[in-house]
Write a structure and sequence with these properties.
Blueprint lengths: L1 E10 L3 H19 L1 E7 L4 H7 L5 H8 L3 E6 L14 H12 L3 E7 L12 H4 L3 E7 L11 E2 L4 E2 L6 H16 L4 E6 L5 H14 L6 E6 H10 L6 E4 L1 H12 L9 E5 L4 E5 L16 H14 L3 H16 L2 E2 L10 E2 L2 H14 L3
Parallel strand pairs: 1-2, 1-3, 3-12, 5-10, 8-9, 8-10, 13-14
Antiparallel strand pairs: 4-5, 4-11, 6-7, 11-12
Length: 358
């Protein structure tokens, strides 16, 4: 029996609910694949501030780095919005990413056939969409210096170094090699010096992957093209702020932000989490969609642990649940045969995953 240590950071709002369902599904596939998951919970976000006075205790960093992977829910809420910026949950998350060195954020956006009508776009536009946004996560304008504000001005600096661009570009090209071998690098090189360097370095890295077709697109055009013709994209490579915006835009191609997972990976560890937030307005009501977190657990199995059969089981479980008409409230209007609670959806996916013959 293979054994893995998994750090669980449930966080705030709906975080505990959706992580619990992902654990339920993980345990179901573990029993089928002769695996053992040892979970250790750690605090981050508003819940960590309430207990320790710090949104990111050192213990959480240590626990995460000592694990094989991190499964994370979501953080934040209006309760903590009046805190000083350095004490807010979001500041803890940024520091967490930096401390763990998870520089590459992988955000797939795919449309389930069963939910093709859930998208606000026409079915013929979104049917078959399957793209991956590769976002640089610990550089760019969110981390650049100098930054600050006074009474009349605020300023932030977008900075990228050659090594930072090289390492994220390699991630994108390697992923493309296992997909359709196309990378679209998104920047604003017509007006930003930092983007001009970005483009130059990406072109240099591309020479090491002659099988991969490289194209460039300005970010404003990319935002429009994602809506006009999303199927033209395979792997989108971009910086931190552009990737933040474009990946959220791409998520809505699927019809619900509650469906899509993500991975943040580096040389030491990977963090696997849904792309949505903590949704404190629906916390505790049992209506949150756990699919994005469950799919994040599948990514964890595949990318961090190399347990592809177990990941296939989870993917099958999600697709089968949707194919048979099980829906949470956020997607209940689209061919629903039964509207499920958060816990019910987790159990249904777990049961289908256990029955997978692959």
């Amino acid at each position: 029996m293979k054994s893995y240590n998994i750090a669980l950071i449930k966080g705030d709002g709906i975080g505990p609910e959706i992580v619990d369902e992902a654990v339920k599904v993980l345990d179901a596939v573990a029993a089928c694949e002769n695996l053992e998951f040892n979970y250790q919970e750690a605090l981050m976000g508003g819940c960590a501030y309430d207990v320790t006075g710090d949104p990111l205790p050192q213990e959480t960093i240590d626990t995460s780095l000592a694990s094989d992977a991190v499964l994370f829910g979501a953080i934040g809420g209006t309760k903590w919005d009046t805190l000083p910026r350095e004490k807010r949950p979001e500041s803890g998350l940024l520091r967490f990413r930096k401390e763990l060195g998870v520089f590459a954020n992988l955000r797939p956006a795919s449309v389930y056939d069963e939910l093709v009508n859930a998208s606000s776009l026409k079915p013929e536009i979104v049917k078959g969409v399957d793209l991956m946004v590769v976002r640089e996560l610990i550089g760019g304008i969110y981390f650049g210096e100098p930054k600050g504000r006074d009474e009349n001005r605020g300023w932030n600096t977008m900075v990228y170094t050659r090594p930072e661009i090289e390492r994220i570009a390699h991630v994108a090209f390697k992923i493309a090699m296992d997909r359709s071998k196309k990378v679209c690098s998104v920047d604003k090189a017509n007006v930003l010096d930092v983007s001009q360097l970005w483009r130059e370095v990406v072109e240099e890295v591309a020479k090491e992957y002659p099988e991969v077709e490289l194209s460039h697109m300005y970010v404003d055009n990319a935002a429009m093209q994602l809506i006009r013709d999303p199927k033209q994209f395979d792997v989108i490579l971009t910086g931190n702020i552009f990737g933040d915006i474009l990946s959220d835009e791409a998520s809505m191609l699927s019809g619900s932000i509650g469906l899509l997972p993500s991975a943040s990976v580096g040389a030491k560890i990977g963090v696997y989490e849904p792309i949505h937030g903590s949704a404190p307005d629906i916390a505790g009501q049992g209506i949150a969609n756990p699919i994005a977190t469950i799919a994040s657990a599948s990514m964890m199995l595949r990318f961090a642990l190399g347990e592809h059969k177990a990941a296939d089981r989870i993917d099958y479980g999600i697709k089968q649940a949707l194919a048979e008409g099980y829906r949470t409230k956020d997607i209940a209007g689209f061919d629903a045969k039964e509207v499920c609670s958060t816990s019910e959806m987790g159990s249904i996916i777990a049961n289908f995953a256990a029955k997978c013959k692959r």
